[in-house]
Amino acid sequence: MSVTFGPVGRPYNLLGVYADSTAWGYYTVYLTVPNMGNYYSLRFNSIFAALGLPSVGNFLDDVSVCLSSVDVNENLTEKIFSIFPNPFSHALNFILPESAVGPVKISIIDLHAKTIYESKPHVSESGIINMEVPGLTNGIYLLKAESAGEVYHQKIVRLE
């Protein structure tokens, strides 16, 4: 089955695909929920089922959702945006404010102020940008997004 997450009324983002044979497996997914409203949906989607019937197999047991608030004091004059998941392993999704229009230039900067990755990703109709980030080692980075003369910053953490 796959597990997806997203704000109600927006596209859902894939958190992972999970499968076991006959034994029960245990899986944990960590997710930073972007500050985009109060209503989100966590969905479990059948991909393969016994006999081709979605209601046969795909058993879930002991599903728990734990929320915790992590507050980091940031300079309030910086323009920030929503990034998820954060920490991430290979890909990031983010939503810039509605005031950001037109093409977007993304830069990832390491803690030595060196730009180590640049991209001009596609912005979907929903306003969500999905970006693969290859070749980063585990660590803390600054993601800078430039759009329509505005510059937005956000800390990101790469963990695998």
What do these coordinates show?
The protein is an all-beta fold and about 160 residues long. It has two domains: about 1-50, no CATH class; about 80-160, Immunoglobulin-like. The chain is about 0% helix and about 35% strand. It has strands spanning about 1-5, 15, 40-45, 80-85, 90-95, 105-110, 115-120, 130, 140-145, 150-160. A four-stranded antiparallel sheet has the order 7-6-9-10, with no helix packed on it. Strand 9 (about 140-145) and strand 10 (about 150-160) form a beta hairpin. The chain starts with a strand and ends with a strand. The model is unreliable at about 70-75 (pLDDT under 50).
* CATH level 3 topology of the largest domain: Immunoglobulin-like
What structural class do you assign from the helix and strand content?
Answer: mainly beta
Question: Number of helix segments?
Answer: 0
Helix content: under 10%
- How much is the average pLDDT? 79
| Contiguous runs where pLDDT drops below 50 for at least 5 residues | 71-77
**What characteristic shape results from the CA principal axes?**
elongated
* Count of spatially separate domains: 2
N-to-C CA distance: 21 Å
Biggest beta-sheet profile: 4 strands, antiparallel
Radius of gyration: 18 Å
Strand order of the largest sheet: 7-6-9-10
CATH architecture of the largest domain: Sandwich
Helix and strand sequence = EEEEEEEEEE
Number of strands: 10
